[in-house]
Design a protein that fits this description.
Blueprint (H helix, E strand, L loop, with lengths): L1 H36 L5 E4 L7 E4 L3 E9 L4 E5 L5 E5 L12 E4 L4 H5 L7 E9 L4 E5 L5 E3 L9 E5 L7 H5 L3
Parallel strand pairs: 3-7, 4-8, 7-10
Antiparallel strand pairs: 1-2, 2-3, 4-5, 5-6, 8-9
Length: 175
């Protein structure tokens, strides 16, 4: 009986860590990284209770940033405008491997569907935390294309936490 109580206690501690503590740690790391970009030109604002986590704005652009937490050995596939799939698992040493685990990313649908009217140009950015092996997009039923920071699939940009600062000029460059 004591073993059962210990197991339940450990499960509760892990649940509290995953639901409460880990998201706060991630938000703090992203906030500190975005503070580096905050200059006289850009203003950073954390957002709670919204479909996005941060705004970064200047005179011309309002950037809405949503953090998407994924495993490092993963692949994100953009199937359509509002349908994203996360595949993860397996050994990263095997080229051409199949990811054994999949799920749809329903948590970003409200952010993707949000329409924001503003005088400034609104740019939606999905920041993949901490990193992913690749981001793919379906061009049609059978063709896939690798999405880079320079691409704007369906009007938003996709970047990783690991390369956000280095690729910031490409992110704010809207064509």
């Amino acid at each position: 009986m004591e073993l059962l109580y210990i197991a339940i206690g450990i499960m509760i501690c892990v649940l509290i860590f995953k639901v409460v503590i880990e998201p706060n740690i991630i938000n703090k790391k992203v906030y500190e990284m975005l503070r580096e970009l905050e200059t006289d030109e850009f203003l950073l604002t954390p957002c709670k209770g919204r479909n996005y986590d941060f705004t970064l704005e200047n005179d011309e652009i309002l950037m809405l940033i949503k953090i998407l937490h994924v495993p490092k050995n993963s692949c994100v596939t953009i199937n359509s405008k509002y349908t994203w799939r996360l595949s993860w698992g397996g050994s990263s040493k095997k080229l051409g491997r199949v990811y054994p685990k999949n799920r749809y990313l329903n948590e970003i649908i409200p952010f993707l569907k949000e329409i924001r009217k503003d005088e400034k140009k609104v740019l939606k950015v999905i920041m993949i935390y901490p990193n992913t092996e690749k981001v793919l997009r379906y061009l049609n039923e059978s063709e896939l294309d690798v999405v880079t920071v320079k691409d704007m699939p369906y009007g938003y940009k996709v970047a990783t936490y690991a390369s956000f600062v280095q690729e910031f000029n490409d992110i704010i460059n809207i064509k």
